[in-house]
Amino acid sequence: MSPKITGELLRQLRQAMKNCKYFSEPIQAYIIPSGDAHQSEYIAPCDCRREFISGFDGSAGTAIVTEQHAAMWTDGRYFLQANQQMDNNWTLMKMGLKETPSQEDWLISVLPENSKVGVDPWIIAADQWKNMFKALSSAGHSLVAVQDNLIDAVWPDRPERPSTQLRSLGLDFTGISWQDKITTLRAKMSERKITWFVATALDEIAWLFNLRGADIEYNPVFFAYTIVGMNTIRFFVDLKRLSDPAMREHLQLDSPSKPELSIQTFPYESVYTELQAICAALGPKDKVWICDKASCALTQVIPKTHRSPIPYTPLCLGKAVKNATEIQGMKMAHIKDAVALCELFAWLEKEIPNGNVTEISAADKAEELRSQQKDFVGLSFPTISSVGPHGAIIHYRPLPETNRTLTVNEVYLIDSGAQYVDGTTDVTRTMHFGTPSAFEKECFTYVLKGHIAVSAAIFPNGTKGHLLDSFARSALWESGLDYLHGTGHGVGCFLNVHEGPCGISYKTFADEPLEAGMIVSDEPGYYEDGSFGIRLENVVLVVPAKPKYNYRNRGSLTFEPLTLVPIQVKMMNTELLTQKERDWVNEYHRKCREVVGAELERQGRQEALEWLIRETQLII
Amino acid sequence: MSPKITGELLRQLRQAMKNCKYFSEPIQAYIIPSGDAHQSEYIAPCDCRREFISGFDGSAGTAIVTEQHAAMWTDGRYFLQANQQMDNNWTLMKMGLKETPSQEDWLISVLPENSKVGVDPWIIAADQWKNMFKALSSAGHSLVAVQDNLIDAVWPDRPERPSTQLRSLGLDFTGISWQDKITTLRAKMSERKITWFVATALDEIAWLFNLRGADIEYNPVFFAYTIVGMNTIRFFVDLKRLSDPAMREHLQLDSPSKPELSIQTFPYESVYTELQAICAALGPKDKVWICDKASCALTQVIPKTHRSPIPYTPLCLGKAVKNATEIQGMKMAHIKDAVALCELFAWLEKEIPNGNVTEISAADKAEELRSQQKDFVGLSFPTISSVGPHGAIIHYRPLPETNRTLTVNEVYLIDSGAQYVDGTTDVTRTMHFGTPSAFEKECFTYVLKGHIAVSAAIFPNGTKGHLLDSFARSALWESGLDYLHGTGHGVGCFLNVHEGPCGISYKTFADEPLEAGMIVSDEPGYYEDGSFGIRLENVVLVVPAKPKYNYRNRGSLTFEPLTLVPIQVKMMNTELLTQKERDWVNEYHRKCREVVGAELERQGRQEALEWLIRETQLII
Questions:
Q1: Which of residues B448 and A41 earns the better pLDDT score?
Q2: Are residues A554 and B469, on separate chains, in Cβ contact within 8 Å?
């Protein structure tokens, strides 16, 4: 991987920063956040501005360019990758390390007095704007909204915004009609005396209307906004997408069942002026809900006295708790996904000794096998297929120039997942096709102990996921080891593979309590730089638990694994496992064999079935 | 315990709320926070305003009185106690429960439009003022500073503010001179370009000057403020206290070694006007450090552009990391404390069957035995001596009208501690002097497992204590049990028994990372309302750990128990313990026997020594 040469680009950007065509005065620094106008984590090519200017294409990162410096903040998953993708013009700011300054502190330390710091108000979230604004102001600088995006100004061949075909989902996939979702939303609005709700997150809008798109790779969403009032629904989207009769029928565009369920459609771009018009007509007591992570541009349209910012919208919370239909779909999707992976691993076991399998061909094979499964739509994120030292690059993605061959001498880590119409998957397995070293086994076993500690944890109703994070680390910590990422994220149902408002991470405090029906990943790891990486990831469903007692009638919860792919016994040092942990592994493997075995048999995939049976032998 | 009758008092308070003598317009609600002008947790009798108006005397709680309602917010430790101490005029707001509204939300729900909510600006912390101000403003109400305290206005016989004799501590107890502490503070100020520092927390001022007082029961502090500039030190205190020649010598009041270490003394009350004078003379770049938990009144004297609020002051952070002399003192104090407790328990074992020991007499005996130890000053908090159902009242304090007799049929919980000149102790043991039930043993054992899980945890340098809280709960959670308080708090060295900025609690996110030299308590519990309470508390020292590996050279930490009092084996269901847990108990008891046994022998306390030997037999 050779870094992107950015000298000339940065020169042009710095010229634009001084050009009063874009802002009345020159600006001394320009912030380029990751993300788009919807604060999406994964973004369309037209929105990959931070990658364009720096070369760094990880899913999280913020660039800041001043007259003298260019700096990139990203987290532990991407330290190695960012270092490899960026040239010497860039300084990597390793988030999470004690010595790394915050963006604010760094800006204050490098800027001349009374500096202006520019940012595109559509790309920066309102809460980030607020914090940055405050910090800069208190140090005598100012944060200014530059309406024209300065990266676009130096990006001649920037791609078009995508407008893919929409797909409507019936009740057999969603469990709840969009009309019922609107009614529930309005009930919550009226409970909190809210008159308007502005939805800006793409997955929330897709979930609300039971629609899916393909505007962003891996994320079945589409560019849109929605404003819901107590009697009106405004839907902002490229109108060409609504011409299909079936789509018009799904949305009841031509014959709404009730007037308050009639959807008014508007072009995507008109959300700003339409929201302005709504706000101009607000009564003195009218309140508008908008997520505090929505764009600064749209948030500031709403007068402060009418604005009611919330950390998580009712759509976000509603979407997180899966209904019975969605849970059933997620289970089906994970069985199909396990079938594909069992086939992959059986194939790898056979092929690797021949020396013909590479990181890329293994990833391609995984995709090919998944695509044979019913209702396959695409991958849910770029497959991380990594051998040996590449495994330590936490979000590694094999490229032709980095592609390594799988051998019987190195650890192989594959983190992959798919979108099926009935659900989204995300699974990581770490395997050795020869004889792992004692140290590799030891680390794998600590990671497994952490994975089990979370998966088998019983905890009271109302517990926030971040309180479980240390369980995943305890065994590693005891040996002086750790990993620099969170332990789990929410997973959508045929939606984004990362979603809020729950997760399992020491980095957050504002996550919502776990509830039965929520779905998160459980993925501790260990990364030995330059040598190997280990991660073990299942997607797990929050389910009620029934322990012996029930303190204050609070009830208890635990997790049920949805992912049903064997965990390689060869990588375990079973002596380090407690009896309880061995029982967990055996019970998990029993379920894999029973559930996935039946499906492999039904699909007539004999070799994979044999592999599954071999890999799910009892451990003692 | 019969509740305080508050009808007439509330009537008078509501009259004062309408009286324009106190504020230009009537106020519709009045907030009575716990605490004094220094935001102390434990307070002097003259500052017990919340207790005076409500009857509830727990260490934490906020009262709000409106024209119609009187409500009290407190946490899980105090639910039972508050219910018993307050009459029907009061509504208990159980903090930490999902259905309990915040103070802001509750006010907004009960107040008529455009209400005024009053509070004494000296008693409310600046950060609380800010949050409350914001929440009320956004709902159309206003928060107003009422300079005269309205409780004082209806409290005819309010006690005087205490002014006890000061005690100076030499280097043999403090390890660092106050002059060196000032120099270190100024180095931190100049590093952050701060020109002034305002100290308002009483324990920080006591620590800084190596002085102790007795103004607040159990807390060896004295009423004072300090303002430190780069060349000046202003000390605000009742000047009568500085007349003693030894005190003048300690503070070098008459012959300072260097001009910048010369202390200017001022009356306690003049801090406001003196800070005003300092602020009037500030240069454009001058910055003033003040804790964001300092009083709103004093904080607002500093113009916003010059104010640099910090969550924890350098004194708070410096005080938290104990130096070698302080650690040695804390160890000595805990050995002496263990001697007293071994004697107490040996005595209880002998006396309880006679039926003459009550909660109060047991607590008195504990105090008597402690007072026989060298450099004993007093208790560090009111002894919680509780039998059977009283044990479930987490901060129970026996009173003549509640006093129960200790028997061989009920669980006995004693949470007690002392101030010695060399250190502060805080220890809880739960015992049964007959035959505990299987359920009592089961619960005790889960609590013990939690205690050990924290105490034996190994974790990376830089870990915040709140990330360890779930370790203490895991065994309880697994059986559907829990406890509604945090797991640990910082402990001062001959200072407050509760101190920041570290602790072990799921409720915080803003604690500072644990560092070697910090001292915290480890005290999980289980409370069966109406039946019994269990808590196991040791004070533990953060020490470096040396696990097998050292990931990224971060280093690891663990805890060393300073408390060395046997944990009753009779209460354990040893079958529920793992081998590792049994090893921990045996090693802990070995150390108790070795260290405390030697001291018991030295002091010739034979019966206690025999008890210690019996209680520290190996478990298998």
A1: B448
A2: no
